[in-house]
Amino acid sequence: MLLNRFIGVVLTVAAGLAGATPAPAAKPRLYLTTELSAPSSMLDGGRVAGIATDKVREAMQRAGVDYTIAILPWKRAYNAALQRRDACVYSTTRTPEREALFKWVGPTDIAQWVLMGRADRRLQLRSLEDARGLRIGTYNGDARDAYLRTRGFTVDATSNDLANPEKLLLGRIDLWAASMRSGSTVLARLGYDKQVVPLLVFNETGVYLACNRGVPDEVVARLNAAFDGIARDGTGRRIERGYENWVPPAPRP
After folding, report:
1. What is the CA 194 to chain-centroid distance, rounded?
2. Domain coordinates of the chain in residue numbers?
3. N or C: which end of the chain has fewer CB within 10 A?
4. Which CATH architecture has domain 30-109+206-241?
């Protein structure tokens, strides 16, 4: 009698388990890092915004991925994506040296590498070789810094790229290796357009969301599909147009 009752309980529990609705799988969650680099990524009322940021947010929504975004100095932002299995960093230049370090999503944008100089010096650069021997301002951990160092150019790195225009105007460097979107009006918005001028575009490259190797391939594939859709349906261009009249806030007195 007791045996029959025990068997009945087991069968009832088994039937209940078999008929239970499985719990929905948790949405993937990523830790995203970036740097202050307006108008690509910046703080707007305490919220991270900007052209690349808005594209990344749109891709996350389309791919069904939860996320947080942290603005950090570039080296910390980059190292977080190397060290944390749930982390990605943007906007990251995709170079042969970095290719195997990350899983790549994007591109988030296309950037031009430009040598900038003082307008009053009237330097003439026909090729990158013409800059050999001149002091070129870069910043720590950046792909432009590595690109120029490995080719034997004289670089002077800083921890903040926007310190380079001031260094240029003070004569501490001869050139600034900047990254600009095609048609960028950043110099005008920062008030440097009459003093700092582009001299030579020496490279054009895509920039990406670079994800730790531990991020699942399926998540990376969904995000890449989302970026393809953003480019194809015009959302990317709409986001870019939304920042065409952006003006940086006036510095605090």
Report:
1. 28
2. 30-109+206-241, 111-205
3. C
4. 3-Layer(aba) Sandwich (3.40)
Q: Which residue has the tokens 């002077």?
A: 156
> Are 59 and 226 a contacting pair, CB within 8 Å?
yes
What span, in angstroms and rounded, lies between the C-alpha atoms of 101 and 211?
A: 9
Its sign, for the CA torsion 211, 215, 217, 222, is negative
- Do you find a cis peptide bond into 179, omega within 30 degrees of 0? no
Q: Which of 157, 189, 194, 159 is nearest to 176 (CA)?
A: 157
| pLDDT tens-digit map of 128-162 | 999 999 999 999 889 999 999 999 999 999 988 88
Instruction: State residue 217 phi and psi, 5-degree precision.
Output: -55, -35
Per the CB < 8 A criterion, the answer to whether 111 and 207 are in contact is yes
DSSP element (H, E) containing 6: helix 2-19
| Helix boundaries (H) for 84-216 | 143-150, 164-169, 186-190
DSSP state of 134: S
pTM: 0.78
Measured CA to CA, the distance from residue 19 to residue 220 in angstroms comes to: 34
* Chain centroid, CA 92 distance in Å: 5
Tokens of 99: 């290719």
